[in-house]
Write the structure tokens for this entry.
Amino acid sequence: MSSRSDRGRSAGVARAAACAPWVRTRLRTAPAAACALGLLVLVTAFLAAAFPRAVDTYESKGLRHDLVVEDPRRSVLELTAPPPALGVEAERAAAVRKATLGAVHRKALAGLPEPVRADAFQSSYGIRTTEPIAAGEKWLPRPYGLDPKLTYATPSALPSHATLRDGAWPTVHGEVTTTATEVEAAVTEETAKALGLKVGSTIAVPTRGEEPLTVRITGIVAPKLPEAAYWSFERLLRTPALAPTNSSPPLYYWIAALLLPPDAAPALLSTTGAPEPYWRIAPDASRLTALEVDRLRSRVASLESGPELLKLRALAGPAATLTTDLDVVLNRYDALRSAISPVVTVAAVGIGAVAAVVLLMTGGLLAARRRGELALMRSRGGSLRGIGGRLLAETAVTVVPAAALGLLLAVAAVGPARLWPAVVGAAAVAVLVCAALPLGTTLLHRRPQLHGARDDMMTARPSRRRTVAELTVLVLAVGAVAALRRRGTAAGGGTDFLVSAAPVLVGLIAALLLARLYPLPLRLASRTVARLRGAVGFLALARAGRASVSGAPALLALLVALTTAAFGGSVLAGVADARDDAAVRATGADARISGEGDAMPLPDRLVRDVRKAGGVQDVAPVQIEYGVPLPSNDAGIEDAKGTTLVGVEPGTYAKLARATGFGPFSADRLKATGAAPRKGTLPSKDRVLPVLASPAVAERLGGRPRDIRSQAGDFKVRVVGTVTRTPAVDSAGFLIVDAASLTHRQTTTLLVTGGSPDAKALRAAAHRAGSTFSVQLRSEERAAFVDTPMQSGAERIYAAAIAAGAGYALLAVLLSLLQTAPERTALLARLRTMGLTLRQGRRLLGLEAMPQALLAAVGGLLVGWSTIALLAPGVDLVQLALSSGTGSDALDTAPLRAAPWSLALPALGVVALAATVAAVQAWWAGRRGSITELRAGDTR
């Protein structure tokens, strides 16, 4: 009995050992395929997880950047209250002392609602005079004979924000009251220099009492961070200014500020300067995120006029008010984000579609390699559920860890941001891959598969379902393109994903159309090659024509990838062109030398020195006069604004206009008839000067001679042509005339051209000519359009989209070739037994791969170019290109432009990769013997 049970137990163990685990067995059988799939999933999951984190990161950095670089006069929240009411003087004095104001300040900072956060170091409080008080000291400077006016303030923590240069810090001696007669103060170095103040100087301040308040200067300080909120909210604290009067012409007087110690505040209550307490709250943007913009705007509105203001009034007084322009900064940030986000979404949708197609192609390749194995399992009773479950298990073992690793790498590589969008992206990739292989395989094996039936693109006939699906996609593509052209990428301040998918839909339509047209050129080529003597060309085209319909996804992936890469390249090219255009508009040439307002004549020595400077190729001297009155039109209506007169040397200026593309013209058109007047003489009344005018000015002047009166002379002009733009001026109205025909000729501006003019030499020449002359370089203006974090983030995403699109396109070509690699290898082995040489084998595989590669490359070029042409009217890149810089309003629009490199390079890469893979496969097959490839029972 015991021996029998032992034998039964041994047999059970043997049977259990014979049934090896499915997943482990499959992974050991094909480790290379599993590793390749895992690597593809890892890269795709990384991209899917990194994209939303990158968007969150650059949007948050953009918000912080905007708040940090914004003028503190806009971003700081200022809480003010009226001075203490008349009453007991001791109580009034106590209400403005450092202890009382400091307590309110600390409570106000602690009670700010989230996400309003304060930078406590740059925040300040005190009391200041809101109306400047005239100073009558005779030794103070008076540029126009007017007394300077001074304001007085008691900013908190002055020693922490300034460095003492001379004297001592101002202090109080004893307890200062409203009847104090002398206090101490400090001034900044700039104020001391402008007003001639020094340690020991005294200022008599009028008061409401009998005796004035004497303010004695005890220290001269230098701000540590002059551009920070502490000093820049009220710039008068650090920098005096010349203020104009309301007279005509205006007269100017000095206005400056004196800094008193905080406990000297009671003394200001008796002055005539309308003192008021203030609390300035500098925002802390270090922890702000883009998701908090709406909450921040709501809380700021509440602080200005809402429940939060009532809380502040409970601290500072019932009449306290809070003012800030922080909401304006947030609105400008939202406008930029709303302009950039839809454009970025276009790239995301395109790359997402390409990645999905490539993942599905990978699943199809794996399924095709195992078709015989799964058919055998199905014939031996395997259920679809059981087969699908095993495939899901073996796929998940590879895919899930790879997707998780991709997520971790994305979290580590991209800055702090929300986690759940990255998790969703990586999970979507894992779910797609895990579902693609089981579903795609089991659906093919629902019915028995007959071996030997042709399934190629030459004989395939589209079904009705396919026709309906293609028509549906066509309608969607037409609707998306029409919507994008009509209303642009932004849809009501949000993102319309149908509009964003327009490039993908156009690529999809093109792929479907090319798949239908693909057999036609092959048939024509086959008929031509059939008449030739060699069999390699005919055999290659016949093989290409019998390519499986499963190659259609590869064509789709290629076209969508190439279209996305072309769109991304056009975005980057459009941004670069817009910045170049704006920089040229700002200077008119590679360099511009002029005086203030283009009104000061340049000495001849400066012109000679500029011509000798290094890197200068040509110099166009120009005479510019603004506000030249135009004669009244036929209706008798005069033009109050006038126009700009531009006197030029026709030869050099015409060359400059052609080089910049700003209103090119022929120099002969400005040639005047008759003798030119000598310098200083009046021109003949009958002399008519030909001029080029802007369209608006030309319409006003008409075609007959009109009188022009200007500082350059009085003369008649006739419009001989119109140009919309000109390098010398960036205005809508101008007249271009030959400077030699002007009575009072003088050069006010030099427009310098050259590859890279020597900036040092140009500035040295301008400085020798006079301190009022300035030099503008086009390269510096171009560099002024620095990328904000939001702009640079969007550009990096587009650069990544181009690289990813090209990578996925090449991967699609590789997968398509690998899917039929065993069949081609077996074909070469059979043909070698019939006398095919190695050279002929390479030609055969190369010619076989070329039709689809050329179809995809040429189709990608045409589809990419046509997509840009179709979508350009609806995509405006001006916000992405020019949201910063001094000339950010120079352009009204920045359209897309097809970038040849983004069209040609990926297409050439597709052809090169197809040829390389074919050559490598032919070389590899040549190394192996025919016996190895041709085995009995092999059905390849």
Observations:
- Residues 10-19 have pLDDT under 50 and may be disordered.
- Residues 713 and 743 are 5 Å apart (CA to CA).
- The chain has 33 helices and 23 strands.
